[in-house]
What does this fold into?
Amino acid sequence: MTTSAVEAQARTLSGYADASRLRQEHDRDWVLDHIPGEPATLVDLGSGIGQLLEAALHRFPSLELAVGLERSPHRITEAAARLKPHGGRVALAEADLNAPAPVPHRPDVVTMTSVLHWLYPTEDRVLAWVREHLAPGGHFLLTTYHPARDEHGLGGEDDIVRDALTALGVPRADVPALFAGGGVLPIATRTRTVEDLAALLERDFRTDGTWERDAVVTVADAAQYTRFHAATFGDYYSGLVTPARREEFFRAVGEAAARRQEERGRVSDMPVRLWRLTPRA
Ligand SMILES: C[S@@+](CC[C@H](N)C(=O)[O-])C[C@H]1O[C@@H](n2cnc3c(N)ncnc32)[C@H](O)[C@@H]1O
It folds into this structure.
């Protein structure tokens, strides 16, 4: 069986520059707006295709070094091409933030946007890493998403996937068990509540400020959402169906989103929080 274009996209997480316009890109300027002073070294964790680093290099002439740590080799390659004009001001490295290794840099700013939920339930490791690496007086800027969740811990993208699976014939009530059986932790469970996160962050950091915005996602059509889902969530959910039904699954996700758009005027909305943190001594 040949692999469909959308499955190939999900495997390599490609198309993110286009897809991230729907939701994640709004974090970038928001985060950069809250960086105090004139940073010399910035480390972006889960740096994706290097968009935040690129914006930071343009915005802060003071920036001598912009470092990106990222797990996906495909994304590192795309980031390297994007950041090539900045030459020696950039360092990119493959890294698994579930077990972050020491680096030689002492950043005065560390950023992490739309990533922390992927590290659940061992976020404490990356938080300790940030605390250990930040230069004295440095800041950690973090964005976290907070979808509402139901009694099974599903919400946000899980809801859209639940609609898609239902359209493919899975009884609605069976979806939480299907997630559990397939080892798919609902994203709405991975994204801890604000209270939970505050307690976790407090161990390593003092909160210097928090801000909130509403992330509203709207789409022009089903195909656009299918691409967004594949570029953002990759094959995280698609393993819930047999390989023969994966292409159909991605299409059903797009159609579920388009139905929501028609009924509610938006696919989804959820609060996003920006935390500015300083390490505890
Ligand atoms: C939603 S994207 C966000 C990318 C970028 N920070 C942004 O705001 O557009 C999540 C990123 O985290 C990366 N990621 C997820 N788990 C990771 C891990 N364990 N270690 C390093 N990077 C990880 C993914 O590969 C992906 O590039």
Notes: The chain is about 40% helix and 20% strand. The domain at 5-279 is CATH 3.40.50.150 (Rossmann fold). The mean pLDDT is 94. The pocket of S-adenosylmethionine is lined by residues 20, 24, 27, 46-48, 51, 70-72, 75, 95-98, 113-115, 118-119, 232 (CB under 6 Å).
